[in-house]
Amino acid sequence: MSNRGARLSPSYVQSLNLIDVEFTGTDEKEKAVRAAWRELLDLFQNFKTTPNAPEKSDELNAVLLAAMGKSLGYDFDKVHLKKGAYYPEFSQNIESEQHALRKRVLELLDGSGTRKLPIAMFEQRFPDLTDKPPNSTTDDGVGENKV
């Protein structure tokens, strides 16, 4: 429940993977938890090919959390389970930006030419930096060093 708003967080994923360990009983409530988890896991494994997968994921996640709550003596409604979590927009933005950045770097490094890094060479047209003072000209036109 504490991470239901951040379903990509490692602790949430770890919690999902512990369901088969924590809900091992033979009573109907724990069987319902494992059945809901199997259905959600099946969706995750076929996410890319399932139409409306994000919406289905939200629904199946709520079903799973409701079954877990019922098994543990809580009565949560699905609307609360779907929309009752707080996850700051800032955190969502960071996740999205990090994902986009990783994706573009991988495209750059994969060698397929999908993404290219433009590189340009510039001529240096500046005088070399030295520790000697520059030469200057006096009123009579003869150069001398000024310090």
Q: Could you characterize the architecture of this molecule?
A:
With 147 residues, the chain is mostly helical. The chain has a domain at 10-87. The chain contains six helices and two strands. A two-stranded antiparallel ribbon has the order 1-2. Helix 3 runs antiparallel to helix 4 (53-71).
Oligomeric description of these chains: single chain
**Order of strands across the main sheet:** 1-2
As a whole number of angstroms, the C-alpha radius of gyration is: 31 Å
Helix content bin: 40-55%
Class by alpha and beta content: mainly alpha
Shape: elongated
Q: What's the mean pLDDT score?
A: 83
Distance from N terminus to C terminus (CA atoms, Å) equals 74 Å
Contiguous runs where pLDDT drops below 50 for at least 5 residues: none
Largest sheet report: 2 strands, antiparallel
SSE series: HHHHHHEE
Number of strands: 2
Number of helices: 6
Amount of beta strand: under 5%
